[in-house]
Amino acid sequence: MDRRTYVKTGAGVIAGGLFAGCTGGGSGDQSTEADGDGDSGSDSTGTATEAATTESVVPSNVVIGSDIPYRPFEYETTSGELTGFDVDIAEAIFEEQLGVSYEFKPTSFDSIIPSLNNNNFRIIMSAMTINDQRAEQVDFSDPYFTAYQTVIVRDDGEISSKEDLRGNPVGVQKGTTGAGAAEELKEEFDGELDIKSYDQINGAFQALINGQVNAVINDNTVNAGFANDRDDVVFLEGEGVAAESDQEAPPYLTLTIENYGIAFRQDDDEFRERVNEALAAIREDGTYDEIYSEYFDG
């Protein structure tokens, strides 16, 4: 399989300078460490040890595993530039807050957690829902996005309610919570649901257009990105878990409410804490809201 690595232009040069500034005492904590070295007779060995320690907590280049494309979270423009909500959040966290560079490494979603734990990259940013099953294998950042599992259908089709899905073929992406929601629906229908799994969500979307499946179960924002570009695909209407909760419900059927998080290996607590601090900072200074408004309404 073709694997490509996307690197922000010039990020390494810029980030290298900023990272050097941080290790030189840019933060209060690091200044304290430098003072301590001075009291004990600072030497090149001590400086090198401090730099190595800092590097082990926040790498100078953060390699991010991600399933691409997954519009609007990570996808290529027509000119080949990687963009999306997760990409802009990564820029805000790593370049702007932590002063380091980052790169996205495309990885299939159904193998992305094993790849993280095999050290193929440092973290996962891939519109990943926090759930108990995944939390047994990775640790998550604080939540940074709320999503819903939803259903899209052909506008000229015969499915107009959740019950109409019974016995029909539905498309999902392998390893996703959309696939999990489909399995729960199949159980609710006493097995009367034909689940078709695809390596990427675009395969499920194409199957819907071709008539190979009659619905696709997937995240609301990604489904919306596809449906909004077409006149022949709509959300399946109906009340669901969002309407039953205290949250403001979207105007379509919702099967689940989920929170996205950045995934870390379970021995990476210090880096995870630094990322949580940076995530809180971009929420506080308005950067998060600016990025959100670029990709989503409301």
Could you list some keywords that capture this structure?
six-stranded mixed β-sheet, alpha/beta, 298 residues, 14 strands, 2 domains, D-Maltodextrin-Binding Protein, domain 2
N-C termini distance: 38 Å
CATH architecture descriptor name of the largest domain: 3-Layer(aba) Sandwich
Q: How many alpha or pi helices?
A: 12
CATH C-level label of the largest domain: Alpha Beta
Number of domains: 2
Write the CATH homologous superfamily of the largest domain: Periplasmic binding protein-like II
Radius of gyration: 22 Å
Mean pLDDT: 84
CATH topology title of the largest domain: D-Maltodextrin-Binding Protein, domain 2
Keywords: Signal
Protein name: Amino acid ABC transporter substrate-binding protein, PAAT family (TC 3.A.1.3.-)
Pfam families: SBP_bac_3
Domain Solute-binding protein family 3/N-terminal: 61-297
